[in-house]
Amino acid sequence: MTPHGARQGLDAEDLDVEEALALVKHGNGSSRPAGDLRPAQREPEASPSARAADASARAAEAGHRAAAEHHHRATAWPDARTIAARAVRPGIRPTPVSVGLGDALGLVLAAPLTALTDLPSFDTSAMDGWAVAGPGPWHVREGGVLAGSSAPAPLADGEAVRIATGARIPPDTTAVLRSEHGRTDDNGRLHPTREMQHGQDIRPRGQECRSGDQLLLAGAVVTPAVLGLAAAAGYDTVTAVPRPRVEVLVLGDELLTEGRPHDGLIRDALGPMLPSWLRASGAEVIAVRRLRDDAKALYKAITSSRADLIVTTGGTASGPVDHVHPTLRRIDAELLVDGVKVRPGHPMLLARVKEDQHLVGLPGNPLAAVSGLLTLAEPLLRTLAARSAPESYRLPLRETVHGHPHDTRLIPVVLRGDRAVPLHYNGPAMLRGIAAADALAVVPPGGARAGQETEMLDLPWATAGISACFT
Length: 471
Hints:
Elements (H helix, E strand, L loop, with lengths): L16 H12 L19 H26 L1 E2 H9 L11 E4 L7 E2 L3 E2 L9 E2 L3 E4 L5 E8 L13 E5 L11 E4 L3 E3 L4 E4 L9 E2 L10 E3 L7 H9 L4 E5 L3 E7 L3 E2 L9 E2 L2 H11 L3 E8 L3 H9 L5 E5 L10 H7 L3 E5 L1 E4 L5 E6 L2 E6 L3 H19 L8 E4 L11 E9 L2 E4 L9 H4 L3 E5 L9 E6 L1 H5 L1 H4 L2
Parallel strand pairs: 1-21, 7-8, 15-18, 15-19, 16-17, 19-23, 21-25
Antiparallel strand pairs: 2-14, 3-14, 4-13, 5-12, 6-8, 6-9, 7-11, 10-11, 20-22, 22-23, 24-28, 25-26, 25-27, 27-28
Helix pairs in contact: 1-2, 3-8
């Protein structure tokens, strides 16, 4: 998706004539000095080509001025991520909820997980074999002890009984003899084929934990293994931080939801991409709405949203149909980040709409939107979900990457051994590179040479696997 064409940036090198002309119309077009009240002198009428050239020059000059002004107030990339992570005021954190184990995967525990029973809750067999009492050989009792059966009868010295893994140990059992370590003679007597130790292959009651033991601290992420531990320890529900609710507003008159691009219309790439990415970041996506370039519709959508975070796509620059900034001013939102010194994605923004609601404005170009997602949305969602920030790491680049003179660049890379290999197709409107990537390299202003260690931002699916990541 490339909504609004060049409207998505105010960078001087990215402005086209149409955008610059729009900026001229927006109030930057007068070249007369302030306070000059003299009547305008009538100039000789120029030819159409001369007028067009003059308009282009004036538009370009205005665009450069606007770009310089916007870049001046833009936030450095590391600072923008810090602001996003700290944007949620402490008293506004979500109230913990009780969640069934089937719905808790990926949440963060809001209370310690304390054992509700001993684990195991009775002495159990660790192997298939025989429960034996005293030294061998043993007389084998008829029947056997299976997992889940009622309390077995005690064993007498010199007696054995068949037992299954997980079954309750009969009273007075000395050890469990594994099936592969025993043989029976012609008289049906059981003999060990290896030396045995007292208590061998018996899991005693409370071996893993005792009732009341703290198993996990608050703040632990509920993984599949945590679900298993909670169930084993007697839980049907856990107390967790709820998923932040996110509403996605996809803006643009030029967007198609199906079929091939045609007649100046293009496919919406962000509508299909963002919800899964946001879920991978711990969010509950409550709605994805497509809006035309209409200020009233955007105002109504924002003011009626029940989400903790509203994510918009496109409309964050200063073109004639870019309504995000005017709408935020209209509702008296607090603008926390207005532009970030990063490429792609420079015109992203973060605003506090209400005390308990934020808005992240993503650029409309797909890779620029990904940049905004990683820079502003993910740190904010981590805080709302009570997740800790991942450990940062650095890898050397296999190739030199050209940088921007003043801004950070985010470049898709694949990880090969101990090196990061930059990918092509990394322009703001391209998804081909990020679709093949494992991570994004954070390239500092001025670029990075081959072999230089560079910070990496992992992509969710690169480390967790698709099904685990997007549950």
